[in-house]
Amino acid sequence: PDMSGVIVFPKTYPQENRASIETKMRALQEAVKKEPANLSNWIEIGSYWKLLENYKNAEAAWNYASEIDKTSPVSLGNVAFMYGYIIHDNKKAEEYYLKAIERGEGYPYIYFQCAEFYRDVLKNGAKAKNVVDRGIIANPNDEQLKAFRASLNTL
User: Which of 23, 64, 74, 85 has the fewest CB atoms within 10 Å around its CB?
Assistant: First the structure.
């Protein structure tokens, strides 16, 4: 995807931080052109687009990153978080969280993120418990997932 879009700051973005962010964005825009297979550059530029509230470019960058590394849930989890907590499109958020889990069963943090979305945004304790249970099955030695699951028993 073309990441050479105009850098526009949200009105409330602090003036004193704009120059450094613009410099970083210009460098990332060049980096993804020069090294289109560099996963970390795509994830990072997506994060900067999100910071600038350009969610379309953030999603495009992260989706492209998910094509570069089809085993990592990171970029899909980023899109899910953006939809769930910023854009407030819960259907898309859930869709991306489930894709991230499917891709990264061995990454316990994605189960935490998804469960927190279910618990905090959808107010659905049953779905939160179910996704953590899936995480424990996929990661049976992860004590943090087990502890998180126990904390969900109060829901």
Answer: 23
Helix boundaries (H) for 35-142: 39-51, 55-68, 74-81, 90-103, 108-116, 125-138
The structure's pTM equals 0.93
d(CA 8, CA 36): 23
Residue 153 DSSP symbol: G
Distance between CA atoms of residues 89 and 39, nearest Å: 26
Q: Which two three-digit tokens encode residue 102? A: 């499917």
- Hey, CA dihedral for 116, 106, 57, 31, is it positive or negative? positive
Contact of 32 with 65, CB cutoff 8 Å: no
Q: What is the pLDDT of residues 21-57, one digit of tens each?
A: 999 999 999 999 999 999 999 999 999 999 999 999 9
- Radius of gyration (Cα) for the chain, nearest Å? 17
